[in-house]
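W.,

You were right to be curious about this one. When I first looked at the sequence I had no strong expectations either way, so I just let the prediction run and decided to look at it fresh. Below is the sequence, 377 residues in total, followed by the output.
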Amino acid sequence: MKALRRALTGLYFVCGALLATSLHAQQGNVIKLGQSLPLSGPLAELGSEYRDGAQAYLKWINSKGGIHGRRIELVTLDDGYVVEKSVENAKQLLDKEGVFAFLGMFGSANYTALMPLVNERGVPSVAPYTGADELREQASPQTFWLRASYGDETEKIVDQLTTLGINHIAVFYQNDAFGKAGLKGVEVALKKRNLKVIASGSFDKVKNDVTEAVKTIAAADTQAVVMISTYKPTALFVKQMRATGKQPQFFALSVVGYKALQAEMGAEAAGIAISQVTPYPWSASSGVVREFDALPPALKPKGGITYTNLEGFIAAKAMVEGLRRAGPQPTREKLVSALESMAPWDAGGFLLDFSGKHLGSRFSEVTIVGNSGRLLR
């Protein structure tokens, strides 16, 4: 009997917590969304840009009366790209801030640690900023991926290289979940073409010492290097590789952040190719870009449109559409169902499909930094 009472008490507590969450979303005129990302540390610029893009759209929606008469508030906490801090922030967002859903949680290793909490609490989580394929393969009914995976990006890069007859490809990668996911993506793409990675070198994201990786890759007969890294180690690696006299074609994934990389390298960034997972931010032919550009000046990010803040803008737009479809009395369960009904949904020339495995987009294209510093398609 005692065991039964304990079980019933636990069940009552869980149901009560879920009911309280639903009631929280239905009371008052505010729906709170939570976000943990780096506003300090090595990815501070990317985190800030992503937040600013999301805030720009949410502020615009709020200026029009919100959704079903409710204002949407985004509560952002800084995790410095530290896994343990991301988990701590997520719990604070849920237990102290009472957020209804997550938007744009940041980092592969970070989201790997967060996913059990997302599943356990049943929290809708839209657009985690990671392309890790292994995370997408795990069961998480509440997670809705927006960006293409690292596998999609590396497939696009390898396809372009091999089409040009470039088969000797090396990989420079960050020694963590993010870097290993990208490395695997390159290996899979090459295996499809009966090829292998010719050399690989890794680095620690805390130390950012790329010396050994440069030695290993420079010693190989490589025509191109795919870099699974953020902007600072990418800049160090390219500079040190060029100093050896080696001139392979350098390819970076979208998470490198074009604006941050250019600020770090200046004219030396010319010639680096970067895969992208959202539309070209300076294209007048893109509906979502025109929409972003048409915002009142006071709502726009001060630095102008970038790939990263455009991704945050699209993520917020997808969340708002889900809330709209969830109706005037939203619950987490209704939001999940509403998001799954977006199949496909046009975000303005950029299609998302959250049905099935919740893989919103597989769009990827390759750009290159021109001699003028402008990013070319």
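Here's what jumped out at me. The two ends are 69 Å apart (CA to CA). And, maybe more interesting for your project: Residues 2-26 form the longest helix (25 residues).

Coffee later to discuss?

I.
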